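To illustrate the input format used throughout this study, we show a single complete record. The first block contains the structure-token representation of the backbone; no residue identities are included at this stage. The design step must infer an amino acid for every position from geometry alone.
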């Protein structure tokens, strides 16, 4: 498995960790799980995507089509961490047209700091 979906902060922020090859089938599974969480959430959610160990994806247009959760009304913001230029480009193509705010950082620490500031503002 090349992904792990966990709570960064319970019922407020999800963390998606990607490593290795992120396959289309896994993107569809992540999408289903994200939609489940968004549908049952009582408040807007944030997501932190750690793509620092993700291999470069050459099918990112297919993955973009599979990630419908990014247009959900309860998704407030997406924070992506990666230092690979091609992965950054892929993430920008996948998530830039999202209804949610989109931020991309070079490392997990910066993305986490931005997410924590957003969580503090929501309280």
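Output of the design step:
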């Amino acid at each position: 498995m090349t992904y792990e979906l966990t709570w960064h902060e319970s019922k407020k922020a999800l963390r998606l960790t990607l490593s290795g090859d992120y396959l289309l089938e896994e993107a569809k599974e992540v999408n289903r799980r994200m939609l489940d969480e968004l549908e049952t959430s009582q408040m807007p959610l944030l997501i932190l995507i750690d793509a620092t160990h993700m291999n470069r994806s050459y099918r990112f247009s297919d993955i973009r089509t599979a990630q419908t959760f990014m247009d959900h009304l309860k998704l407030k913001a997406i924070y992506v961490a990666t230092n690979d230029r091609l992965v950054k480009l892929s993430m920008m193509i996948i998530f830039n047209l999202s209804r949610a705010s989109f931020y991309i950082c070079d490392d997990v620490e910066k993305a986490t700091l931005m997410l924590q500031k957003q969580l503090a503002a929501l309280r």
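Structural context for interpreting the output: The longest helix spans residues 24-40. The chain has a mean pLDDT of 92.
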